[in-house]
Amino acid sequence: MASHCEKNHLPPDSTPHLNGDANTHLPKRPKIAPTFISDSEIQSEFAHHDPSVARINNGSFGCCPSSVISAQQQWQLKFLRQPDWFYFNGLKKGILESRTIIKDLINAEHIDEVSIVDNATTAAAIVLQKIARDFSEGRFEKGDAAVMLHYAYGAVKKSIEAYVSRAGGHVIEVQLPFPVKSNDEIIFEFRKALERGKANGRKVRLAVIDHITSMPCVVIPVKELVKICREEGVDQIFVDAAHAIGCTDIDMQEIDADYYTSNLHKWFFCPPSIAFLYSRRSPNHSDLHHPVVSHEYGNGLAIESAWIGTRDYSSQLVVPSVLKFVNRFEDGIKGIKKRNHEAVIKMGEMLAESWKTHLGCPPNMCASMVMVGLPSCLGISSESDTLKLRTHLREEFRVEVPIYYRAPKKGETAPITGYARISHQVYNKFEDYVKFKDAINELVQTGFTCTQLSK
Ligand SMILES: Cc1ncc(COP(=O)(O)O)c(C=O)c1O
After folding, report:
1. Which protein residue's CA is at the shortest distance from atom 7 of ligand 1?
2. Which candidate, 44, 50, 51, places its Cα nearest to that of 66?
3. Domain 70-324 carries which CATH code?
4. How much is the mean pLDDT over the chain?
């Protein structure tokens, strides 16, 4: 005879609880742990990477897993199969879907605040061309100031020269210390630069602030600096966060800048090239334009940017596939960021200990990249030495890593003049860093100095 329990499909020893299972008379199922992507699946997603190279430089060009590359190819085929259908029915919808995902990831208030462009360089041109118009159309006066970090990215500095200086802006650089020990040092220097900007009654019209500087690499206390700008009456604030999305936490409503850009092809697994440009809704917002003018001119930056002539838009359409990829990891992109940060610090400390050097900043001032001092006996004495040494490491040791030159200060004995910027991304293995460690130790043991490298 069937027992009461059996009739209710409950195992003999189960007691009904006042929960959903009991009320619906369903057996309580054992919780099944979600299955996350395995190590071997990660390796196969990146099997197209050259296996002979220790690629510890995700920061420069990012990476794209094979499942996303396949998705991109599907989009390309969709276009090539029936371009007219795709243009009229698929493209705008696809770009809007990507923008919507980005809007949620960055906590923007409104979808109109999010445009997709090629890269951070394009985003900087959009913002700085607007500033140039503010000068040429009389909203700003010649001699009004713009403040930027000394460590601003080279291409962005050129853009400031091309658009702001040429329009009559007075550009002031924030001198940042390196190595750096605390956010306070950065905040102090930033305040000093703003004071210089405001000297003689000048107005500070623009602040360009990096979220994560490129070289040397440091996470800047951007929220605090934006707040200071607001208190000091800076007109417009542009955050160049080329590295940020997928690397450090970003929240548009918390950061409160006017413009903020980040590449998705660096730390967010997209193929090149795709970046978002956030622009807070304000009168300035409606005067932003894509540098390539096409049919949509005047319809708002997001719409202008979604058609800048016939070209391949597939990299802008794969954002949903990237989201699927990152959600295969425990805690999605948040978990990836956390584990990359922990790993890069561990690897950086391992290298610094072996070479008897130090990290360029404390762990709380870096995300998935960290600067590691190189032994001073390598004799790095110029930027050209850093490039030559990088080439040497690539060609002789199969290690890919960028190097920063730091000019020694007066009176320093055996100063560290070279710092390597190491990255950690999901595909990296411990062996990648051991290969780098051993390469430098071999150079030191054999008495190598940069003077031995030809021009
Ligand atoms: C801080 C910063 N800004 C801008 C850029 C330019 O990015 P992209 O070449 O994708 O335009 C970079 C690239 O590394 C960067 O590090």
Report:
1. 120
2. 44
3. 3.40.640.10
4. 94
Closest atom of ligand 1 to 60 CA is 14
Establish whether residue 210 lines the binding site of ligand 1, counting it when its CB lies within 6 angstroms of any ligand atom. Answer: yes
Task: Determine the pLDDT at residue 29.
Answer: 74
Query: Strand, helix or coil at 247?
Result: coil
CA 120 to ligand 1 centroid distance, Å: 6
Q: Is residue 13's pLDDT more than 50?
A: no
Is 118 close to ligand 1, i.e. is its CB under 6 Å away? no
Is the Cβ atom of 121 under 6 angstroms away from ligand 1?
yes
Nearest-CA residue for ligand 1 atom 15 is 242
pLDDT in tens, 249-261: 999 999 999 999 9
CA of 135 to the centre of ligand 1 (A): 26
CATH number of 332-452: 3.90.1150.10
User: Phi and psi (nearest 5°) for 212?
Assistant: -130, 115
Phi, psi for residue 149 in degrees, rounded to 5: -75, 145
Are the CB atoms for 242 and 222 separated by under 8 Å? no
pLDDT given for residue 151 in this prediction: 97
Query: Could you give the angle at the alpha carbon of 399 between the alpha carbons of 395 and 404, nearest 5°?
Result: 100
Q: What is the strand order of the sheet 369-373 is part of? A: 369-373, 418-423, 403-405
User: pLDDT tens digits, residue range 135-159?
Assistant: 999 999 999 999 999 999 999 999 9
| pLDDT of 286 | 87
Domain boundaries, the chain: 70-324, 332-452
Q: Is 214 in the pocket of ligand 1 (CB under 6 A)?
A: yes
Count CA within 13 A, CB hemisphere, residue 144: 21
Q: Is the pLDDT of residue 351 over 50?
A: yes
Q: Is 163 in the pocket of ligand 1 (CB under 6 A)?
A: no
pLDDT at 355 over 50: yes
Confidence band for 432, pLDDT divided at 50, 70 and 90: very high
Burial of 51 (0-12, 13-18, 19+ CB in 10 A): exposed
